[in-house]
Recover the amino acids of this structure.
């Protein structure tokens, strides 16, 4: 059931992410080319939705501690602002194919930060799988080799900040019980901080363009853009909630690898729908990346089985020490405060 649960959220994540990309590309990119403001608006709507949802009975969240704010929420907001800002500038300097190659290294950065933060245990087998994925995505998107050094540096900074953000999110959602947050809790506190960090960049780089564009638009076009921006904001809210749910159920590294698989699906979609060129080198890269992803999934599956067996052995050991076992399974027999066995009267 857990596998089906995770698979459902991955499919939902792909659907929401693709919807946001298409809506942004078809309705926003040319008509409202202000990605920083779009990011701020999406986080504003996400924050408002989170506040409304947490007002319902059963959805109320515990208050944010000062330690969690400075240790996780504030750095996550800062990372997102730097990640998006650097990425948007880099995309203007780099080709899309080369940008995709650099983004393919994201799982390596996620693992690097996760190991430092203690959220992952380093292994050469796991590192080999991630390298295979990065090399494969690079070959699958191989195109023009020209690029600007500034664009390369900015994109690497963006990917590194993305990895750090995911590692922090992993620790926030799966850390010690006293500091652990639910996905809704995380969304409630990280979204407004992210919006506040992005806002100064949006005002500094885009406000003049926004004012000029709004002055030229008709009333109907203004309402259309407002409606699309609002819809994107709602989708981003559910996307973020889905991502947090996946990180809590699996790990930040697993979500990062799932994101690479999504990139491959996008490449295939471009070939089928838009008839993009795909040569032998691209096919080899596609296959290598798939092998890397498959190897990663196998490693995670084996680790999950080993963890289940370990938990079962500990449970059996505790039951055996108390002498409470039936056919090898430990039993929990309730006792009262004095240590006497409780019985039910029939």
């Amino acid at each position: 059931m857990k596998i089906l649960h995770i698979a459902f959220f991955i499919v939902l994540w792909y659907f929401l992410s693709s919807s946001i990309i298409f809506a942004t590309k078809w309705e926003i990119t040319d008509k409202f080319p202000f990605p920083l403001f779009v990011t701020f608006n999406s986080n504003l709507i996400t924050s408002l939705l989170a506040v409304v949802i947490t007002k319902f009975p059963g959805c109320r969240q515990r208050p944010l501690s000062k330690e969690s704010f400075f240790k996780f929420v504030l750095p996550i907001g800062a990372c997102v602002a730097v990640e998006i800002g650097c990425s948007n500038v880099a995309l203007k300097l780099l080709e899309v194919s080369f940008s995709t190659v650099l983004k393919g290294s994201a799982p390596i950065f996620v693992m690097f930060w996760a190991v430092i933060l203690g959220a992952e245990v380093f292994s050469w087998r796991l590192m080999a799988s991630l390298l295979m994925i990065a090399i494969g995505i690079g070959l699958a998107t191989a195109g023009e080799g020209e690029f600007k050094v500034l664009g390369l540096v900015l994109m690497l900074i963006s990917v590194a900040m993305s990895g750090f953000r995911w590692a922090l999110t992993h620790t926030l959602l799966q850390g010690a019980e006293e500091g652990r947050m639910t996905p809704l809790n995380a969304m409630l506190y990280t979204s407004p901080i992210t919006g506040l960090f992005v806002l100064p960049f949006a005002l500094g780089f885009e406000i003049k363009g926004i004012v000029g564009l709004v002055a030229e638009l008709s009333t109907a076009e203004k309402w259309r853009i407002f409606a699309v921006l609002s819809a994107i904001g709602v989708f981003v809210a559910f996307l973020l909630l889905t991502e947090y749910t996946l990180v809590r159920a699996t790990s930040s590294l697993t979500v990062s690898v799932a994101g690479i698989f999504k990139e491959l699906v996008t490449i295939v979609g471009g070939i089928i729908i838009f008839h993009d060129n795909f040569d032998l080198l691209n096919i080899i890269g596609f296959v290598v990346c798939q092998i890397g992803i498959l190897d990663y999934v196998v490693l995670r599956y084996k680790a999950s089985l080993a963890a289940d067996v370990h938990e079962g052995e500990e449970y059996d050991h505790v039951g055996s020490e108390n002498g409470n076992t039936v056919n090898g399974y430990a039993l929990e027999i309730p006792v009262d405060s004095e240590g006497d066995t409780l019985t039910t009267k029939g």
